[in-house]
Amino acid sequence: MRIEAVPLDLHPLYEATLGGGGLSNGDWDIAQMTTDWIAEAQAAGALMNLRPMIEANPPEDFPDGWSTSMLGFQDFGDSIVGLPFHDGPECLIYRKDLFEDDGNRDRYFKRTGRELAVPATWDDFHQVARFLTDPKRNQYGTVVAGFPDGHNTVFDFALHVWTRGGELVDPATNRVIVDSPASHRGMRFYRELLQDTTAIHPDCRDFDSVKSGLAFARGEVAMMVNWFGFASMSEVVDESVVKGKVDLAPIPHDPDGSSASLNCYWLYTIGAGSMHASVAYDFIRFMVNRENDKRLTLNGGTGCRTSTWCDADVNGQVPYYHRLESLHEFARTLPRLANWSQLAAVIDDLVIQAMNSEKPVEQITALAQSRIDEIQGS
């Protein structure tokens, strides 16, 4: 069997698979797809139903080998349209050596009258980020994936709403809400942080989550809210200078809110137009077995199996890997909507305006809400 693998960035991947109909017309047999797009792909009939293949020849340990949080988004009842490939969720990733350093602790106490600690609130996060910024050492307090790709800015928006006691979806109507007191507070903070050159990496607006994670691994960032996989990556990739110096904590929150996490993951899918579905499924089944999930993890990916999360070799290299299971217990998901890509584009624009302009946040969110209401049909 010969595999021709084609790497694509997010927008070209979307256009090749969904925008241009490539999964439906047979251009692609297999696609790695984020859960953001699954509802749209399912509604468009772009993905093959894997349930009959799974029932006839299930992957190793299916379904018990995975957390239920890794199996729900792609399960539409009569159809299952993907198998987990690469995992989140988001958390606070930080340099524990900087927080444990006696010099840093003494200076912080003299400056603030408080002990240097991993921040639990957003205000503390901002203050500590300023303290740990030292441009002469190419070290910055934090980094944000501010590149407008329709994903990371949207994830940040959701987390800033949730950690301030707000909701992204009205539970009574199942409609997306972006104009709310929680979003106003979140975007005001986001703007202040992104515009504070004494706290944040100067290249944020050009960074996606991967570039942010690599900056952290190079020692340029003291702490960041990012995907768990970038913590584990910093323990295994050759270019990392922070191996053994990394730890995790809950994402900060408002004093009146609580921490939250976001679970978004990647799936192996088979195009509805594939002429090689049986071979494609055999390949996917092989790729998601125990051995390959572990191998993916030890090479910088984020394995999806509970066996990988608890594996002794994995935890020997990444000592906090077992904590993925507890992170998943409290992680939330974005709405599973067929028009999510359209809605996410509006939220992306909302966040970019909040970052780069001085318009009142309430004006930005109100305009975004009107656009979202139009998409949702009201």
Q: Could you report the average pLDDT, rounded to the nearest whole number?
A: 96
Give the N-to-C terminal Cα separation. Answer: 51 Å
The biggest sheet, with number of strands, parallel, antiparallel or mixed sense and barrel status, is: 4 strands, mixed
Number of strands: 11
Pfam families: SBP_bac_1 (PF01547)
GO cellular component, one term: periplasmic space
Subcellular location: Periplasm
Protein name: Putative ABC transporter-binding protein
Provide an overview of this structure.
- This protein has 378 residues and is of the alpha+beta class.
- The chain folds into 2 domains: 10-88 and 264-332, Periplasmic binding protein-like II (D-Maltodextrin-Binding Protein, domain 2); 90-262, D-Maltodextrin-Binding Protein, domain 2.
- It has 17 helices and 11 strands.
- A 4-stranded mixed sheet has the order 4-7-3-8. The protein has a 3-stranded antiparallel sheet with strand order 1-10-2. A two-stranded antiparallel ribbon has the order 5-6.
- Helix 7 (152-162) packs across helix 8 and helix 9 (209-217) crosses helix 10.
- The termini are far apart.
- The model has no long low-confidence stretch (mean pLDDT 96).
